[in-house]
Automatic annotation (TrEMBL):
It comes from Pseudoalteromonas aliena SW19. InterPro entries: DUF3103. Keywords: Signal. This is DUF3103 domain-containing protein. Residues 1-24 form the signal peptide. Pfam families: DUF3103 (PF11301). It comes from the Bacteria.
C-alpha cells in the first residue's frame, strides 16, 4: 500500500513539472485519498489505533464531553456522543463505523460501534482532579503473545504500558461496544443458520415446537468461568453458546446460537436460570454445547457460513447416519474446533470450553467442560402449555 502511494506522489511531481492538465492531477489526488482511507480502515485494530490517536490529540476539546458523561456508575462514552468534535472528525467517525460494520459482517442498522472506556474506576478520581490521561487500544492477535500496550498522550506521543499490570496513570481504552456487536452478530448468525426465522428467538425454527404439548428443556442454573488471566485492557467478556445437534426430521445439522450476555467476568458465579436447550429441536436427545467469546476480528457472516459449511461437509461424508447415532454430534463439534483458531480467529481465547454429549432429562451438577474452564449446573425443565 505504501509503495503504491509513493508511486502516485512521484507521478504527481512529474505531472507538475510538465504542466499536465489540472484534472489529471486531481484524479490522482482522489486516488491517493482513496488509498489512504483503505489503509486507515483495513482492519479493526488499525481503526481503533487511529481513533485513539485522534481522541488523544483532541482531548482538550473532548474533556468536557467526557466529564459530563463519566462517573462512578458509567465509565463509557460512545463515539457518537463526542459532540465537541468538528464536522470533519464526525465524518471520519462515520466512515470508520461503516468500515467496522463491514469488517464485522453487521448491518448498517447496528449503529455506532466505537466507544471510549476508562480502564478502571480506581482511575476516576485522579482523572477528575486533572491528571492527564493516556488513550490505549487492545493490540491484535493472541493476548498471550502481547508484550506491551500502545497508548497515546494528548500530544500524540506514544507510551508503552505493561500488559499484565494496571497503569497508575488514568487510561482511556478505545474499543468496540462488545455488547452491541455481539447482539447484532448473533442475529446475523441466526439469520444464516436458520434462514427466514430471524424473529423466532434464540432457537431458530421455533415453529417445530407444538404449543399444545409440554416442552422439554434444559435450564442453565449456574455457570462459572475459571481465571483466564485476561489483560486489564480487555474489559468484560462477551460469551455465547453454540448448541450442536441433528435435525429430528432430516439429516441436517442444527446449530443454535444462545447469547449469554450476563457472563462478564471470570472467577464469578452466575445464576441465570436461562433455558439454553429446547429438546424438540434435536434428534437422539443429545447435543453438544460450545462456549465462545466474541473477538474483535470475527466477521459474523463468515463465521456462520463456515460453521454451516463444515458441519454439512462432515455429515455428507457419513454413509449411514442412523448407524452412527448421536456419536455423530461430537464429530461435528470437533471439526468446528479444529477449524476455528487457524481459519477464523486471531485470538485463541475465543474458545472458552466445550460440553460433549449433554442428554435430555439429565441433571448436571457442578459439571466441568472438557477444558475445565467452565463449570455449569444444567437441569431439566418441563414447560407445560397454558391452561385455558
Amino acid at each position: 500500500m505504501t509503495n503504491r502511494i509513493t508511486k502516485y506522489l512521484a507521478a504527481l511531481a512529474l505531472l507538475n513539472v510538465v504542466s499536465a492538465p489540472a484534472f489529471s492531477a486531481q484524479a490522482n489526488i482522489n486516488e491517493i485519498e482513496d488509498l489512504s482511507k483503505l489503509a486507515k480502515y483495513k482492519d479493526v485494530t488499525t481503526i481503533k489505533r487511529n481513533f485513539a490517536k485522534d481522541v488523544a490529540l483532541n482531548y482538550n476539546l473532548l474533556n468536557s464531553d467526557l466529564k459530563q458523561t463519566l462517573n462512578q456508575y458509567n465509565l463509557i462514552l460512545n463515539a457518537d456522543q463526542l459532540s465537541s468534535l468538528g464536522m470533519q472528525k464526525q465524518q471520519n467517525i462515520g466512515e470508520a463505523n461503516s468500515a467496522l460494520q463491514q469488517l464485522k459482517g453487521l448491518p448498517q442498522s447496528t449503529g455506532s460501534l466505537l466507544q471510549v472506556r476508562l480502564a478502571s474506576d480506581t482511575m476516576l478520581a485522579d482523572w477528575q482532579q486533572g491528571q492527564s490521561p493516556l488513550f490505549a487500544f487492545a493490540p491484535q492477535g493472541d493476548d498471550k503473545l502481547w508484550t506491551e500496550i500502545e497508548a497515546f498522550d494528548q500530544f500524540g506521543q506514544i507510551h508503552y504500558l505493561a500488559v499484565d499490570e494496571l497503569p497508575n496513570q488514568p487510561v482511556f481504552v478505545v474499543e468496540l461496544d462488545q455488547q452491541k456487536v455481539q447482539s447484532a452478530g448473533i442475529a446475523v448468525m441466526r439469520s444464516i443458520l436458520s434462514p427466514g426465522k430471524l424473529n423466532d428467538g434464540a432457537f431458530g425454527q421455533i415453529n417445530l415446537l407444538n404449543n399444545e404439548k409440554p416442552m422439554q428443556t434444559s435450564v442453565l442454573k449456574k455457570i462459572h468461568l475459571a481465571d483466564d488471566k485476561e489483560p486489564w485492557i480487555s474489559g468484560k467478556a462477551e460469551v455465547y453458546a453454540i448448541v450442536t445437534g441433528i435435525d429430528p426430521s432430516r439429516d441436517k445439522p442444527i446449530l443454535d446460537i444462545v447469547d449469554l450476555p450476563y457472563l462478564d467476568h471470570d472467577e464469578t458465579t452466575y445464576n441465570p436460570n436461562q433455558v439454553v436447550i429446547h429438546w424438540q429441536r434435536y434428534r437422539w436427545q443429545a447435543v453438544d454445547m460450545l462456549l465462545m467469546e466474541q473477538d474483535d476480528n470475527t466477521n459474523y457472516k463468515t463465521l456462520a457460513s463456515k460453521l454451516l459449511e463444515i458441519t454439512e461437509q462432515v455429515m455428507s461424508n457419513i454413509p449411514d447416519l442412523q448407524a452412527q447415532g448421536f456419536a455423530i454430534i461430537p464429530k461435528l463439534t470437533n471439526e468446528l474446533l479444529k477449524a476455528m483458531p487457524d481459519e477464523w480467529f486471531t485470538n485463541n481465547d475465543d474458545y472458552v470450553d466445550v460440553f460433549y454429549t449433554l442428554f435430555e432429562n439429565k441433571d448436571y451438577q457442578e459439571y466441568k467442560g472438557a477444558s475445565s474452564n467452565a463449570t455449569i449446573t444444567l437441569s431439566p425443565l418441563v414447560i407445560n402449555p397454558r391452561q385455558n
